[in-house]
Amino acid sequence: MFEFTVTAKNSRTRSGIFSTMHGDLVTPVFAPVGTQATVKTLTPEHLKDINASLVLSNTYHLYLRPGDELVRDMGGLHKFMQWHKPMLTDSGGFQVFSLSDTRKIDDDGVTFKSHIDGSMHRFTPEKSIAIQENLGADIIMAFDECSDPNDSAYSEIAMYRTHRWAERCLRAKTRRDQALFGIVQGGVNPTLREESAKFIAALDTPGIAIGGLSVGETKEEMHATLDVVMLLLPEDKPRYLMGVGTPEDIINGVARGIDIFDCVLPTRLARHHSAFAPEGRLNMMNATFARDEHPIDETCDCYTCRTFTRAYIRHLIIAKELLAGTLLSIHNLRALIRLMEGIRAYIADGSYESRVPELLSKWSNNAKRGMGNRE
Amino acid sequence: MFEFTVTAKNSRTRSGIFSTMHGDLVTPVFAPVGTQATVKTLTPEHLKDINASLVLSNTYHLYLRPGDELVRDMGGLHKFMQWHKPMLTDSGGFQVFSLSDTRKIDDDGVTFKSHIDGSMHRFTPEKSIAIQENLGADIIMAFDECSDPNDSAYSEIAMYRTHRWAERCLRAKTRRDQALFGIVQGGVNPTLREESAKFIAALDTPGIAIGGLSVGETKEEMHATLDVVMLLLPEDKPRYLMGVGTPEDIINGVARGIDIFDCVLPTRLARHHSAFAPEGRLNMMNATFARDEHPIDETCDCYTCRTFTRAYIRHLIIAKELLAGTLLSIHNLRALIRLMEGIRAYIADGSYESRVPELLSKWSNNAKRGMGNRE
């Protein structure tokens, strides 16, 4: 169970297979985010069509609504949302720290106010595991504390707490069909990150997550931190870079040996009418596209690009038709999943390292806004 | 072109085939409404999956946004929205009268204010036909004036205007691949309706629409009006009851010889979290369904009912996830299309007339609200 087999390696970059109860994950992999047990505006059929293989859902949100015990009683998250491939849940920690106005952290756990109705709740490592066991994802996360990367003193406190909580999560865990990943913290301090990587690696969890990145640090700090951490992680465990990220972050992460990524970016951009395209990120609401008979991306194989013109998508946006969000989500997610498919092919033929500059140049275009984007 | 072949007949009820450039329509048929060149929240794939055969779109809305000339330049409505089966457009008259605050009717046409930006526009019979030719639906409508059914004096003026406008529409029409239907008006006055039915029938259009019903009159008035009109319409032309209606209206309409129906009810109910179900119309937001592991309707073959529980749909609604609207639209539309499939089977085996009480009793349940409905 939870074997990770590296199938190809170019320098630090690797491709592999991680086995779960709901099938094999071929890495590097990008996970669409289904916060509330649904990848916003898409059916599971849409997700299959874009070749999604791993879906992430959020412990904090599902605990509050509809409740993890309800999900358990309905047969677990896979059955509830009808996604029968691998799933991952986070620990709830990140949302407690980012969404709740009022929260009180102590060494035992966190007391927080619901962002929905203001009711008070408490998460501990044991509670996070109990919730994640009720939800039943294939990959679950240790309860961690994500610190401000620029506050070194707080990062140290949060890191030690994260380590103690990881040990408690391991002890609390009862299900054997879920892979619990420990989480490396330590802000952007290389000494802390080194200590954290060694500590979490020693716990011998079936995979290791890197938390506390893409939360306000610079790109250089993120890369330097990954360079420190990755050297210390075992080769035979998948590495998950939590909440990351943009296409450029993914390309750079893969180059440093990351295997799993997740990000809300593709679906969030879709809700804001933005589309990944060869000429850069496009604001599809722009008048430029009113009579554009081309698909968003001529080279894309997604349902949206195979079927509809930019003119039609722009019309749907202007007319406030919800189908616009569905069509853009399909395209944006497929664009990132195609990127991962391309990356895996390059790793398989040994060319990934040499392709990085070309990939970065192609996608850096999408960090900036393309023609027609006036968000 | 536009042949209508009656394939089965039970008393006044009939089943038939109407041939269009985009395929044959098997009647009686229910058309989902795609107001702005999209059936709200659904892809064309969803529409194919529920076995939709005719889609209606609105001339008034498409004229204002994105503009009929744009739709024409993009290859017409079928290509623009990627629906390659039969389509129908209304004349724009009904929306001009119902959506515009400010409108001035004269014998030549109507001047009105856009409900979107307040700009002034003018529709005449010739303009309505020009717009509908740009849109390119298979079935198009003569420009008509829909009167308050309870105002007999106004109904008479509106009826005569509708007749003169129908003649002008016929003269204005240039495309031969579109079937222009004349529209019978006359409120709920049997003398006016008789005169209108005779007049419109004499125009020898390839089909005839009945307008001005389901706009505030009683059910008895609707049925009495249909009884007068239907006797006077030719047997070899399809009859379209515009904007109707509820399942009960459809069952009663078929019993009186109606062939084509359209209504926003299924998708509008979906947006208000209501679902057609055997026990009556359900408000899926109700707490009753929080742990209900059954589909909306055990007997339904739609994607939603084959895949998801009531508990999951309720969760999506409570969590304000847009997928709820998509899943409920699929189910509600499929429920009406299944009703039509059943009706056609009963007509084919000669049992329709005898099944009407049973069908009405089954569906009257859905006029009322079922358990759990607190809209």
Give structural attributes.
15 helices, 6-stranded parallel β-sheet, homodimer, about 40% helix, alpha/beta, 3-stranded antiparallel β-sheet
Oligomeric state of shown chains: homodimer
Structural class of chain A: alpha/beta
Round the mean pLDDT of chain A to the nearest integer and report it.
Answer: 95
Major sheet of chain A: 6 strands, parallel
Largest interface: pair, residues per side: A-B, 39 and 39 residues
Query: How far apart lie the N and C ends of chain A?
Result: 46 Å
Task: Specify Rg of chain A, calculated over alpha carbons.
Answer: 20 Å
Identify the overall geometry of chain A.
globular
Write out the strand line-up for the largest beta sheet of chain A, numbering strands in chain order.
4-14-13-12-11-10
Record field, number of beta strands of chain A: 16
Low-pLDDT regions of chain A:
369-375
- The amount of beta strand of chain A, in percent, is 15-25%
Number of helical segments with 4 or more residues of chain A: 15
Helix amount of chain A, in percent? Answer: 40-55%
Commentary on this structure:
The structure is a homodimer of 375-residue chains. Chain A is α/β, with parallel strands linked by helices. Chain A contains 15 helices and 16 strands. In chain A, strands 4-14-13-12-11-10 form a 6-stranded parallel beta sheet. In chain A, strands 1-2-3 form a 3-stranded antiparallel beta sheet. In chain A, helix 9 links the parallel strand 12 and strand 13. In chain A, helix 6 packs across helix 7 and helix 8 runs parallel beside helix 9. The radius of gyration of chain A is 20 Å and the shape is globular. At the A-B interface, helix 13 and helix 14 of A face helix 13 and helix 14 of B.
